[in-house]
Fold each of these.
Amino acid sequence: MKKLLMLILLSLLLVTPLYAQTTMSGVSGSGFWINKVAIASGSVTLANSRISAVNGIAFYDIGVANALTDYLNHLLVVKDSAKRAIQGYIKAAGTGETFSNLISGSTLNGNMETGDPPTGWIGTDYGTTLSGAADERTGGSGIQSLNAIRGTQDYAARQSSGSAANQLLFFGGYMKNITSTTAGFQLGASVAVLDSSADWKLISVYITATGNHNLWMMVTGSGNGRFDDVFVRRVLTPSATGVTITSTKGGATFNWEAKDASFNYNDASGYTYTIYAVQ
């Protein structure tokens, strides 16, 4: 009898897969772990990674068709370069990005049409000289832009974006260099987009906010740059290559199941993702 029981136990060990278990620190409660079979994985650059991790609007998009949308109802784990992670369940494929404006057009004078210098934009931090210029961006509907003469640092002018932690934001605007080396925009203290164009050019970038960030207009080198139709938009839904995320399989709460408190939402070194089968 003992020999028969040993044979049965051995057969179970041979046919049962050994699941890898991963533990992560920094999560409230008991932490979180994975006891599933990996069915897909990949790596993503920061430029291609779009993470929304605010409660009620949780999604992930890497801009690659079928990479995520083929795995509805399975567990998605995203790790930064330091192996800190967030995880949640893939709910549904996106149908297209939608936005709400934080700074845009006449909202907080994003079009630079009110005042000389344009009101709402602060340039006193580093001695920037601001003025309204009769130089509307190419194709614009207004009559002026903001001219910024660089002071002691590249940070030329700022305004609070009103953003909140874990929101995915899309920001940028039109810029041109007059006598500066590059000009552009930075949100908060990390992600920036700059260009050396001497003609009006639209530039933009995505960032996952970590709080209420200032939108900065940047002027590098020396001299002056100009800015028009600046915007900060909160991204509400993912594109068709992205997926919405819920805290439980098939659930109705759009949030990640667990988030490492130290996860880097704007990691210049990029990310890895793994999808695990869920029965």
Amino acid sequence: MLVDAWLPRAAAKAPQAIAVNNLSYGQLRLDAQSAARKLSALGVVAGDRVAIVLPAGTDFVVTFHAVLLLGAVAVPLDPRTPPEQLRARIKGTRIAVERPLDGHQDPAALLLQTHDLDRVAVVLFTSGSSSAPTAVELTYGNFWWSAAGSAVSLGLDQRERWLCCLPVSHVGGLSIIVRSAIYGTEAVVHDGFDLDRVNAELESSDGPTLISLVPTTLQRLLDAGLERPACLRWALLGGGPISKDLLTKAAAAKLPVASSYGMTEATSQIVTRGAPLFCTTIALGEDDEILVDGPTVAPAFSPQLKTGDIGSRAEDGSIEIVGRLSETIISGGENVSPEFVEEAISRHPAVADVAIVGRPDEEWGEVVTALVVLGEECDEGDLRSFCSENLAPHERPKNFEFRTSLGRGPTGKLKRSEL
């Protein structure tokens, strides 16, 4: 099914309306068209994968839309990713954009006026529960239905200003950019979460109407004294376990919270404000695993996405998340694969054995903790430096504990729950 391309449609409807960071839709279209012609001059054609290794902000948004205008596939990557991981994720892409595009423009570049809802638009990497990062292919249709479902759950105002302070290499942050273009509304895109900057935005008389947060960032805003944000309709809160105490504090501060449960494989939101998106169905499978079906589920995981999360059905029919089948650690809204971190740390010559576990934490939800058995003398500072060179910031252990043994089972498998 073909639909009007989102950016050209929004620009044609309201060229003077603000699209992103004070840039109008008319100007964003011109800048994205120019960037698309520069990509075409570099050999990019429809279907090619283009890695976007730029910090969140206007340049990222321009480049992202340029890729879509060519019918290429955007692969957003965090510039802070350790070099070895970054090279692995760039592999297979036609080109990696690591700075704002400049140079020659191809006047013959074919710029699309439609999107095919069945075509892949974006590839996002998620650590999931395995040691190797998983590349999730999301279609234009996945994003369209997610935007429609979000609008039904949260409402939609044409004067919407959605503040993005989440990584745009993750589905929660990128979805703000995509759905804003679909709606023709404004996105305010920050390069990460800066407490003072976000607080100032929310306290402004013309502040954002929506913001996406994880429990850690919401807690920091409340600790900083945020109360009664003037324009905020909803703070969409997800990315990890949400405590009742945090919701109580938010209610006392008159901060409207829309709790959400979602996954990359389902194009962000699955359940928002206690109910599945209108286009989504959820059920309980074997071992009470939550199963998700609907048009937001990535094709590779359709027709029924196995979430790895355990649920229970309440009297009113709603499903509550009570635990995880997988061993994924969720720290500050970021998924961390224990096996991936273990493999990286085990390459340190002084490490004889290592286990990674998540420990409950009020600020982070869970903290990545390394249990290390040393084979030779080594201090914690050396291990931290090694982790900084080989792991992304959210993957680096916050705590190190040194042990003489990890008590593996007879097959050599870690007894992670006991650890």
Amino acid sequence: MTVRNRTAVAVGASGTYYKYFFGTVDNGTTNCPGVSASCTDVVGNYPFDNPLTINKTTWSIAPVSSYQATGGYFVLDLRDYCPALYRTLTMGHLVLPSLSDAADATKVFARTNPSRATVDAVAAIGELRELPSFLFQTGKAMIRNGVRNTFRFDKGFVIGDLKVVPKGVANGYLAWEYGWKPFISDLKKLLDFQRHVLARETELRKLHGKGGLSRTFQVSTDSAESISTNTFVESSLFTMYSTEYKIRSVRRRWGTAKWLPDLASHPVTDLELHRQAVRAVYGLSLSPRTAWELIPWSWLIDWCSDVGDYLEANRNTVGATCAGANLMTHTKTTHTFRKMVHNLPGSAKGGEATCVVETKLRGPFSSPVLFSDIPNLDFRKTSILGALGIQRTRGIPNSRIIHR
């Protein structure tokens, strides 16, 4: 395989300037930047995809045009003049949250797998074992502390010696987050039985059709914005600045995967497709993911890594193998210079500009990756840590919460 690099450049409007100041002459030509692009890819490895990187910068500039000013010791003549900053500035993207290729690629495998379970019925039934403990602990906490004060502190509520903080509430919260909340969600999906099965049958027909099954999964979208004031774009021939310089970056990531049947020549009847669809949609097999969900405290590893996605990606109820997958990332940043101010005599116009910077990446993957990552502590995960802390302590002694 050979790495190939290609570039393209298109220049924008050209202009001239002439400046006379106390006997000193400065004159010349300028070219507004237009479009510049580069593409790096790999040749060979057909029919599989290769890595691809595309960078493109596009300028749209309103030059300072047809301006003349004269005086006893001063002459300035501008014709389609491009301010200096636009000719020298290298544009880029704002800082966005970091990405994990391994994690996102594994999510693509898991979400596009024709064997994925919409409702893991076996695991859901296993979660029923939490019901008696959940009801007992929650009821006990409500009797001890009152219904209203079990889950929140009301205005004016005073607690002395927070030894009464109930472990039952912590147990109930964890049982809800990792047992009953997903279980109720599965029940709702079960009510839409026919739609899920018919949709999966359509996928399986494509899987056994010519070319196999190709699916796309939207992984994430991130954005960032920055606004600056009084950004100088020209300070040599004259003074001009933008009172509003706005930068906005948007990044989209998605993945595509192509799946082929394990037995391509094996004929599949409509009845067999229907059975496979039902088994896949409702997880009617003791798959590695089902076993994982039924292991006590398995959530602890799921909290720090996507082991569940890894197991889901390797589920193979219908007999299909991924023949190739790509992870695509498109980052687009728009730089906008508006509301121009200058020190030129008269009414010079122009100077506004917009620059669009785009980066497109394609990264092929051949298999799911088991990875570990330190999670961001959002509100839900912080609550889980708090519930675990309550479970592992005897309360919070010598504390007092007083509303003033």
